[in-house]
Amino acid sequence: MTVDDYLASVTNEGARDLFRRFQAMVAACGPSEAAPSRTIVYWKRTSVFAGAFVLGRRLELNIDLLRKAEHPCLLAAFPHTKRVITHRLRIVSADQLDAPLAALLAEAYAQVGPGTRTRRVPA
To answer: pTM for this one?
Structure first.
C-alpha cells in the first residue's frame, strides 16, 4: 500500500490537504520512509517517530518524543515504551500545522527516529 492508496479513501478534500501539509513537514525533517496501512500512515527512520490519519474532516497525529511536551492541539500524551512518550494531537485547520508543531516533529525525527535503544559496546 502507498500513501496515495491511503488518501484514495479520504473523501474530505480539506482533510486530505491537511494530511499533505503534514507529509511535507515530515519530508522537511530529512529522509524517512512512509509505512502506510489502511487506517494510518507512519513515518520512520530506524524507528517510527510520527503517524497521521484522517478522521472525518480532521487530521489526527501521533508524534513520539523522549519527553512530555505541550502544544495547543495536544489531546493526550502517554508512554509508548519505557523511554518514548506518544503525543496525540488533533489538527482541524492549516494554521495549526505551525512552527511549534514542526519543532516537535523535528525533535521526534532526530531523537526517536534513529532508535532509542542504548547499544552496548563490547569490552
So the answer is: 0.90
